[in-house]
Write a structure and sequence with these properties.
Porin, 14-stranded antiparallel β-barrel, about 5% helix, elongated, single chain, 20 strands, mainly beta
């Protein structure tokens, strides 16, 4: 790891960066920015302003937060993801159970009203993260045995209330990230467990976000937010047989040399259109449509200057843009207690032909419940729970027409199978208003 970047990554760890997790939105995107939103399946987030966390999904919503507010919380994520199938070359059944790690996703937010028009905010959270690791005995590790992305974001924001109807906001995003991906032989031309490809690195980069809110009338509101893509160039090292073969070494199978190199990783742009509608004094409904530019995630390619062929494909991905649809409801039980619920459908960022085992991307259905309790005039406590049903999805590797997959088949054969899974999430949030 690049020593020049140890300090910012250490800061990220101190602030509560992701240790390891499996992404619960499409691809390796994280939706879990607050436990308040978790209880309504993150429906209508760009038009909601429960607490200072609202700025992470739309900085314009800062204009709905009077005074100074501090909000912090965490969400526990417990995925259960399995893959079962057959090595069709050797006709052997194979499986890997529960290969995505559980994790805690923390957050911290501050908002401050400067005057009637200007509002400031600071968000510390994460928008992307994942970690999968297949069992060593799984007979498909030649196509990929592990993958991880870990990020932390520091996001200062400013918002301006134009008038009683319109607000705008924006902010810069300082993203600290690290990632890795690897593949090991499960037989064939190299001993089982031989590292075929492994690449890891870290980087920091900048992005931005901008949002707007339209208060149509006293009971109806629309919000929109756009977050830019962030280009990371993960600098670190690579190793493995696939790289040794381009090094002119006399013993490529046994000399696991580490090569300095880098790997580009694009964190895609996102957009959200959301609405909030207060139907009665007690009942409100809210909805949102989210878009993520996953088509930018075409491949993972290492650049290793010391090799005779510096550019090396680590994994071809061929993802596509995805959409998420969510609708929720809020019920004001009494002066102190608010109940929340929501449902969401998250579309996969890959089609069946491009799904891989290491990132078993598939459609997801969210069912959520939550509650908020006003402990005092200043302190509010929130909790949320979500259960996610992941659609069973077929996986075939090597994928037709993918050269890097075809070469992997020589080190353990072909795999056909299915991924299955579900996830539950539980979170808590505390907000104090000064």
């Amino acid at each position: 790891m690049n020593k020049n970047k140890l300090l910012p990554l250490a800061i990220a760890a101190a602030l509560g960066s992701l240790s390891s997790t499996s992404a619960m939105a499409a691809g390796f995107q994280l939706a879990e920015y607050s436990a308040t939103g978790l209880g309504r399946a993150y429906a209508g987030e760009a038009a909601m302003a429960d607490n200072a966390a609202a700025q992470f999904r739309n900085p314009a919503m800062l204009t709905y937060l009077p005074g100074t507010q501090v909000s912090t919380g965490m969400i526990y994520v417990d995925p259960n993801v399995d893959v079962d199938g057959m090595n069709t070359t050797t006709n052997q059944p194979t499986s890997s159970k529960d290969f995505a790690d559980s994790a805690v996703v923390p957050n911290f937010y501050v908002s401050h009203q400067v005057n009637e028009q200007v509002f400031l905010g600071l968000a510390l959270s994460s928008n992307f993260g994942m970690h999968t690791k297949l069992d060593d005995n799984f007979k498909g590790t030649q196509f990929g045995n592990e993958a991880s992305v870990m990020t932390m974001e520091i996001n200062p924001n400013i918002a301006y209330r134009i008038n009683d109807q319109f607000s705008i906001g924006g902010g810069v995003r300082f993203v600290m990230g690290e990632g890795s991906i690897g593949a090991k032989s499960s037989g064939g031309f190299a001993p089982k467990g031989t590292t075929l490809k492994f690449m890891e690195g870290d980087d920091t980069s900048w992005g931005w976000q901008a949002g707007a809110a339209w208060q149509i009338n006293d009971t109806n509101r629309i919000g929109f937010n756009y977050r830019s893509e962030v280009e990371l160039n993960l600098e670190g090292h690579a190793e493995g047989l696939a790289f040794n073969l381009y090094n002119g070494g006399t013993s490529p199978l046994t000399d696991m040399v580490q090569y300095a190199g880098s790997m580009g990783l694009t964190l895609p742009a996102t957009a959200e259109l959301a609405s909030f509608h207060q139907l009665t004094d007690k009942v409100a409904v809210h909805a949102s449509v989210n878009w993520t530019d996953w088509s930018t995630f075409e491949k993972l390619e290492a650049n290793i200057p010391s090799l005779s062929v510096p550019s090396q494909i680590v994994k071809q991905e061929n993802w596509k843009d995805n959409y998420r649809f969510a609708v929720g409801a809020t019920y004001q039980l009494n002066d102190k207690t608010q109940l929340r619920s929501g449902v969401a459908y998250d579309m996969a960022a890959v089609d069946d032909a491009n799904r891989t085992i290491t990132i078993p991307e598939t459609d997801r259905l969210w069912l959520s419940l939550g509650a908020g309790y006003a402990w005092s005039q200043n302190l509010t406590l929130d909790a949320g729970f979500t259960y996610i049903f992941a659609k069973d999805a077929d996986v075939v590797e090597p994928r037709p027409g993918i050269a890097s997959d075809a070469s992997g088949a020589a080190f353990g054969g072909k795999f056909e199978g299915q991924t299955t899974g579900s996830v539950w999430l539980a979170g808590v949030q505390a907000t104090y208003r000064f």
